[in-house]
Predict the 3D structure of the following.
Amino acid sequence: MNRMSKIGLAALFASVLATGVTAYVKLSQEDGAPPPVPADALQRSVRLLLAQRFTLEEAYVHWWRKEQPRVASGWLLVLEVDKDLVYPRQMQEPVLYVGRQTAERVNFGHESGRVIAFVPGDVDLASAPIFFGSAALPEEVDAVWIEAELAAALRAGATPPSQAEIEAALIEPLHLADQYNLFLRAADLIEEHSPQEADLVSGLRAPRIARR
């Protein structure tokens, strides 16, 4: 199983243990070697397509940064990205940031060019550039690392989404019970924007096991 699969499944099954959810996500490495990690990730544009605020009654752990903060609110985003940046790899790869926060990529998106991501906290999209930074493991990234990545992105010309782009992307906010239900919403968006990942959608929609 490739590195992102392990990270995504680790996050998912951490939620599974906490909420009584069971899910099996079948993600297989495609035949052939992936393209090299682009050296110019900072120059690759990321376009905001959909933005939905969420709040949760039960918080979960954000495993995609070193501090592992607990998350009770944030953004659910659909992004148009360069496919080479999100191709499944068994190695470090460009980390996706939204301002000063690491984004949790729920799907790969290397076939569709569409990534669905969770962004914890009260991030102001109007002042937060969305960009891919240097290659790393997201779970090793901390606040100091993020500040350096953001500074490099700003020097490279990264800018936040325009007000028009944000207004076009915004939809009604969600209030959900927990991360399991957030994954269900993400599954709907993956099915719509990245239908090639049907196995992932099925896994995310696996039924919850009743708590004992």
Q: What stands out?
A: The longest strand covers residues 47-61. The radius of gyration is 16 Å. Helices lie at 3-19, 143-155, 163-169, 179-193, 198-204. Confidence is low (pLDDT under 50) at residues 1-31.
